[in-house]
């Protein structure tokens, strides 16, 4: 087993020019936790990692594994043609909230609606990055350009604060074909913040997850069930 340690400052230095434009749209504000460009690492990982690395799994620290993470690597084989990233849906109505203006102007949209037919957005706690596909996708790399980011944020009236997750969510509204949607059991989020903040009536439509959980995600400091 080979372990390679990367210097955070070096990575941030490489990242900053690539993600600077999107930080103003998807950060909580200057000097805050998510405004650091390292929280956009996944977005440009294909530019940062050596060319010989073709696939990578990026995960949050607040996870508990109920199965071998090697099984997650098998999901790369399920990517449809054109997909570059594997990611699970967001399990709270956070993007129902964030896209409120777009939803008001487009009352029949799927944007922000719950699964299975809606587009609830993504949660970046578990990410499968097909670096080779990301490098080769003309569409994906066009979407990283500041003018495209600006165009989409204006179209969707989008202002977020969750870093890479916001970028993937917004891009997924426009180009869902870039993503392989992981089953909720690969990123079973436990946070229920939005249930108590105005969305109790629809919360369970987003939060439900059938099947045996493979990875628990204790987001917003939620305790993870003991075995």
Automatic annotation (TrEMBL):
Keywords: Transferase. Pfam families: Glyco_transf_8. InterPro entries: Glyco_trans_8, Nucleotide-diphossugar_trans, XXLT1. GO terms for biological process: protein O-linked glycosylation via N-acetyl-galactosamine. The keyword Manganese does not apply. Transmembrane segments: none annotated. It comes from the Eukaryota. SUPFAM superfamilies: Nucleotide-diphospho-sugar transferases. GO terms for molecular function: xylosyl alpha-1,3-xylosyltransferase activity. One of its GO terms (cellular component) is endoplasmic reticulum membrane. This is XXLT1 xylosyltransferase. It comes from Melanocharis versteri (Fan-tailed berrypecker). The gene is Xxylt1.
């Amino acid at each position: 087993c080979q372990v390679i340690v990367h210097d955070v400052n070096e990575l941030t230095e490489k990242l900053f020019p690539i993600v600077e434009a999107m930080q103003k749209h998807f950060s909580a504000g200057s000097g805050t936790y998510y405004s650091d460009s390292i929280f956009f690492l996944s977005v440009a990982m294909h530019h940062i990692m050596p060319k010989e690395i073709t696939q990578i799994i990026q995960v949050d620290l607040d996870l508990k594994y109920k199965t071998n993470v090697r099984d997650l690597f098998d999901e790369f084989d399920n990517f449809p043609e054109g997909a570059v990233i594997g990611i699970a849906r967001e399990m709270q109505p956070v993007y129902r909230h964030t896209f409120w203006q777009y939803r008001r102007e487009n009352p029949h949209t799927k944007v922000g609606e719950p699964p299975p037919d809606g587009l609830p957005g993504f949660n970046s706690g578990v990410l499968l990055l097909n670096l080779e596909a990301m490098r080769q996708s003309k569409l994906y790399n066009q979407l990283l350009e500041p003018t495209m980011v600006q165009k989409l944020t204006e179209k969707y009236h989008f202002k977020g604060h969750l870093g890479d997750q916001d970028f993937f969510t917004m891009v997924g509204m426009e180009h869902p074909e870039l993503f392989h949607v992981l089953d909720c059991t690969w990123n079973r989020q436990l946070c229920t913040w939005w249930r108590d903040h105005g969305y109790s009536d629809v919360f369970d439509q987003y939060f439900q997850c059938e099947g045996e959980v493979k990875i628990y995600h204790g987001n917003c400091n939620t305790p993870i069930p003991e075995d």
